[in-house]
Amino acid sequence: MMHLSIHKSYDAKVRTTQLTHELGHAFEETHRVDGPPWGSPPFISDYAEHKPGVEDVAESFRAYIEEPQELKRKCPEKFEALK
Prior knowledge:
Radius of gyration: 12 Å
Largest sheet: none
Oligomer: single chain
Strand content: under 5%
Shape: globular
Order of helices and strands: HHHHH
């Protein structure tokens, strides 16, 4: 069973971004995503780079939903893998 944790924020955009990121973890677990291109550069965010083993897919998923053109430009292999 997966638990989602969203930090309290009054900013709806922040909550939406956190939720999308957490859904990325659920996507990763459900689809057993691992191996290349995950866990290696380029990374879509500093957070993904700081913890690539656990945050790269979730951050890429978030970007795919919220800013797909940025993900496609910065991390084309990850964009294609999510597509």
